[in-house]
Write a structure and sequence with these properties.
The chain has 460 residues and is an alpha+beta fold. It has three domains: 2-152, Beta-Lactamase (2-Layer Sandwich), CATH 3.30.450; 212-298, Helix Hairpins, CATH 1.10.287; 306-459, Heat Shock Protein 90, CATH 3.30.565.10. The protein has eleven helices and 14 strands. Strands 1, 2, 3, 4, 5, 6 and 7 form a seven-stranded mixed β-sheet that branches. Strands 9-11-12-14-13 form a five-stranded mixed β-sheet. It has a two-stranded antiparallel ribbon with strand order 8-10. A hairpin with a 5-residue loop joins β1 and β2 (81-86). α3 (146-196) runs parallel beside α4 (212-260), α4 (212-260) packs antiparallel against α5 and α6 (310-324) packs parallel to α7 (344-361). The two termini are 67 Å apart.
Length: 460
């Protein structure tokens, strides 16, 4: 509302400025035209005096053009004005009284013009009064101001129309700037103030598509939505991390309280309690290590970069899995060598996380396949299981931190829920992509594509 009031005040000021300027220009032009009439009147007066008298005098043919716009009359001392010459282009006569004649009369050769109203016409006249020496009274010589007044009125109309057009353009431009320029900035400011005051759901209204205001509003609202989502993810992350750490801490505290109360006097029970405390501490340390690694990856800190052959890494991951679950069929199909540039330890962590995910989420007799090959200038790794698979909702959250598709699964056997998240961030840090293809009853296929200059050279 304040911006609108300022706009109205500004337009009012511009209107007043236009009115004053137009009035000054029109009146300056009118004075100029009046001076032109006075000069014309001064040129006519000497001829008019010769023609003038106290009765009509025939107009000589050679003077017809000279007197076509002139009125010549004789004013008696009793106020009677007798027309001597009525120009063809002049209507009516000037309204001149004895007092006017006395006030403005001049000797022959001197001419003082003044403006008088007309009688029998709406036009005004510029009048010169010359006092007669031979007869009582005055000679009245006048020129109509009709042309000058018409030009003055046309100038006023033209100035008014021009001012109206300019004001309309200014008003439309100001309204456009206010609506699509100033108002969006004001709306963004108000929204920012409201959000700072705690109204986190506040957003900027929409504007016509394709305008700068629309882009500003969309960018601001998108930024707020992303910030809100990031804050929500951060809150969820902190809650999940706290929950993950609280479980081992609660267990450790429980054993410590049990020991302090004398409940672990038996050496066998004490050894078992220490073993469990050690296991919980190790799990808590693993979670902290994973969180630190995720923080490092999120900050974009560089990983080690050296030549790596993924083929042995795939073979080692399969051997480790067979050691954990000897009854499971695990096959490895890979090219040798399978070289790229990256961080060997972190790439091993990616493969291990994918294989561990297959072992934990499928029955023990479910086969697992590990493949590695070069394709389209990249090294492609796939870990495939033939287990129950995931539904679409679970698959969409598979790489989220602390997410578990099976909520009933115990944390002790299910891990921290950070494995796939870390794998995704490591792959992204290497400039690659990890994709999950799954459906209920069709198992899971994790495909990792890592850029490899050697693969591109081999393809050429």
């Amino acid at each position: 509302m304040k911006l609108r009031n300022r706009l109205v005040v500004g337009l009012a000021g511009v209107t007043v400025a236009f009115a004053i300027t137009g009035y000054l220009i029109a009146n300056t032009q009118r004075r100029y035209l009046t001076e032109q009439v006075d000069r014309q009147l001064g040129n006519v007066v000497p001829l008019a005096i010769r023609v003038g008298g106290n009765r009509p005098v025939p107009l000589p043919p050679e003077g017809a053009d000279t007197f076509s716009e002139v009125y010549i009359g004789h004013l008696d001392t009793d106020g009677t004005l007798t027309t001597v010459v009525q120009g063809q282009l002049t209507s009516g006569r000037p309204d001149v009284s004895v007092a006017d004649a006395t006030a403005h009369s001049t000797d022959p050769g001197q001419h003082e013009a003044f403006t008088a109203d007309g009688v029998g016409t709406s036009d005004q006249f510029r009048v010169t009064v010359v006092e007669r020496r031979d007869v009582p009274g005055w000679d009245i010589v006048a020129l109509s101001l009709a042309k000058a007044d018409a030009a003055y009125r046309r100038l006023l109309v033209a100035t008014g129309i021009g001012a109206a057009v300019v004001l309309s353009v200014i008003a439309l431009t100001a309204a456009w700037v206010l609506r699509l320029g100033v108002r969006p900035i004001n709306d963004v400011t108000l929204a920012a103030d409201a959000i700072s005051a705690g109204e986190t759901g506040r957003r900027v209204p929409s504007y016509p598509a394709g305008t700068e205001a629309a882009r500003l509003a969309n960018a601001f609202n998108s930024m707020l939505d992303q910030k809100e989502q990031a804050d929500e993810r951060l809150r969820q992350f902190v809650a999940d991390a706290s929950h993950e750490l609280r479980t081992p801490l609660t267990s450790i505290r429980g054993y410590a309280d049990l020991y302090n109360q004398g409940g672990l006097k038996d050496q066998e029970r004490l050894d078992d309690a220490m073993r469990r405390v050690s296991g919980e501490a190790e799990r808590m340390g693993s979670i902290v290590t994973d969180l630190l690694l995720l923080s490092k990856l999120d900050r974009g800190l560089p990983l080690e970069s050296s030549p790596v052959d993924l083929a042995p890494i795939l073979d080692d991951a399969a051997a480790d899995a067979r050691a954990v679950q000897p009854e499971r069929t695990i096959t490895v199909t890979t090219e040798h060598p399978l070289e790229l540039t990256g961080d060997s330890q972190r790439l091993h962590q990616v493969v291990a996380a994918l294989v561990h995910n297959a072992l934990m989420h499928t029955p023990p007799d479910t086969p697992v396949e590990i493949t590695g090959q070069r394709a389209d200038g990249a090294v492609v790794i796939e870990v495939i299981d033939h287990g129950p698979g995931m539904d679409a909702d679970t698959a969409s959250h598979a790489f989220e931190r602390f997410y578990r598709g099976d909520r009933s699964r115990a944390r002790g056997t299910g891990g921290s829920g950070l494995g796939l998240s870390i794998a995704e961030r490591i792959v992204q840090a290497h400039g690659g992509r990890i994709v999950l293809r799954t459906a209920p009853g069709e198992g899971c296929r994790f495909r990792v594509a890592l850029p490899s200059p050697s693969s591109a050279a081999a393809a050429q």
